[in-house]
Design a protein that fits this description.
Blueprint (H helix, E strand, L loop, with lengths): L2 E4 L28 E5 L5 H10 L3 E5 L7 H6 L2 E2 L3 H7 L2 E4 L4 H9 L13 E4 L5 H12 L4 E4 L2 E2 L2 H6 L2 E7 L1 H14 E6 L5 H29 L4 H9 L6 H11 L9 H17 L5 H15 L11 H9 L2
Parallel strand pairs: 2-3, 2-5, 3-4, 5-6, 6-7, 9-10
Antiparallel strand pairs: 1-10, 7-9, 8-9
Helix pairs in contact: 4-5, 8-9, 8-10, 8-11, 8-12, 9-10, 11-12, 12-13
The structure holds NADPH dihydro-nicotinamide-adenine-dinucleotide phosphate (NDP) and the ligand O=CC(=O)O.
Ligand LL5AMS7Z binds next to loops.
Length: about 325
């Protein structure tokens, strides 16, 4: 059965954490002793790796764009020139990549992590991908004798910086227990959901709800303005009622000003909706609201908003209005 373990653990730099602590729990969890690799230093990967370094872990990093490693190297990280090199020099390697294609390339491609894997090592993929991709990566990793855990995260740039992510893990439970203290540095809670694929599925279901909520919120903001209400007042009213959500309170004020500082890139939200639609189709479930939302994110991408925050989807609605 799925288990939830809440920890007061990761608070990034605010927590003194020993990577070689040796306490253990009945589930086999203990402090992590060994070297940690981190592949992919984008919006999420960089703060997650920083928190591990600040907690005292021995971290080795790699990123396709080499310059993004520099801030981590300044904090004390080591560098290796390929995912294979990171994996072979570390005990456990995390990967935070953009999408299924990049996650597969980094894990299974030329000089990919699988080439540096061996029995006793572990690979933890924290990217948001679909179950089939995760299973493919898991197969490559475990064929080397290493262990595999998928662990996509819920929570955005700020929770990543604050060590307050929610891990949705599945796969090798021994590896889950082995890296528990590392997950607790980067997150506030963790779920172990069973076989590889269940973490990916959970993440896609959560994000399809989030993507649709953002579209609905956007429609409300525009409609309120059009009928002569102050959209800032709408944000305030929503924040006090049953549909209050941190996402609305956080992003609403800047959306009213047509500002979309990127925390969760719109292109990644659209990727998640695309993958969620395929997941629903695999079990013949109709998700018409998500399908409609996905179309709007696609329009937003075509307007050049792919790298803006996903709240910029409101601009696709505005464009529809203008083309009337
Ligand atoms: N941002 C958010 O709020 C959240 C994001 N996520 C998920 O986490 C993952 C990462 O997101 P985020 O950090 O925001 O994304 P970014 O776009 O900021 O970072 C993507 C990372 O993937 C790397 N990458 C992309 N393509 C390739 C490739 N072909 N080969 C090697 N590396 C590649 C990038 O390298 P380079 O620097 O060279 O471009 C970068 O390190 C995504 O799956 C996203 O859906 C999950 C929760 C929250
Ligand atoms: O995947 C995005 C998030 O905010 O969670």
């Amino acid at each position: 059965a799925p288990t939830l373990r809440l920890r007061g653990g990761g608070r990034g730099a605010r927590l003194v954490f020993s990577c070689s602590a040796s306490s253990s729990s009945p589930s086999g969890e203990g402090g992590f002793s060994g070297k940690v690799g981190f592949l992919g230093l984008g919006i999420m990967g960089a703060p997650m790796a920083s928190n591990l370094i600040n907690a005292g872990c021995d971290v080795t990093v790699w990123n396709r764009t080499r310059s993004k490693c520099d801030p981590l190297l300044s904090l004390g990280a080591k560098y290796e020139p390929s995912p294979a090199n990171v994996a072979s020099s570390c005990d456990v390697t995390f990967a935070m990549l953009a999408d299924p294609e990049s996650a597969v390339e980094v894990a299974c491609g030329a000089n990919g992590a699988a080439q540096g894997m061996a029995p006793g090592k572990g690979y933890v993929d924290v990217s948001t991908v679909d179950a089939a991709t995760s299973k493919l990566i898991g197969k490559h990793i475990t064929s080397t004798g290493a262990s595999f855990l998928e662990a996509p995260v819920s929570g955005s740039k700020k929770p990543a910086e604050d060590g307050l992510l929610i891990f949705l893990t599945a796969g090798d439970e021994s590896l889950y227990n082995r890296v528990a203290s590392l997950l607790d540095v980067m997150g506030k809670s963790r779920f172990f959901l069973g076989d590889v694929g269940k973490g990916a599925d959970m993440k896609l279901v959560v994000n399809m709800v989030m993507g649709s909520m953002m579209v609905s919120f956007s429609e409300g903001l525009l409609l309120s303005e059009k009928v002569g209400l102050d959209p800032n007042t709408l944000v305030e009213v929503i924040s006090q009622g049953a549909i209050s959500a941190p996402m609305f309170s956080l992003k609403g004020p800047s959306m009213v000003k047509a500002a979309y500082p990127t925390a969760f890139p719109l292109k990644h939200q659209q990727k998640d909706l695309r993958l969620a639609l395929a997941l629903a189709e695999s079990v013949s479930q109709s998700i018409p609201t998500v399908a409609a939302a996905n179309e709007l994110y696609k329009v937003a991408k075509s307007l050049g908003l792919a790298d803006q925050d996903f709240s910029a989807v409101i601009e696709a609605l505005k464009a529809k209005e203008q083309s009337k």
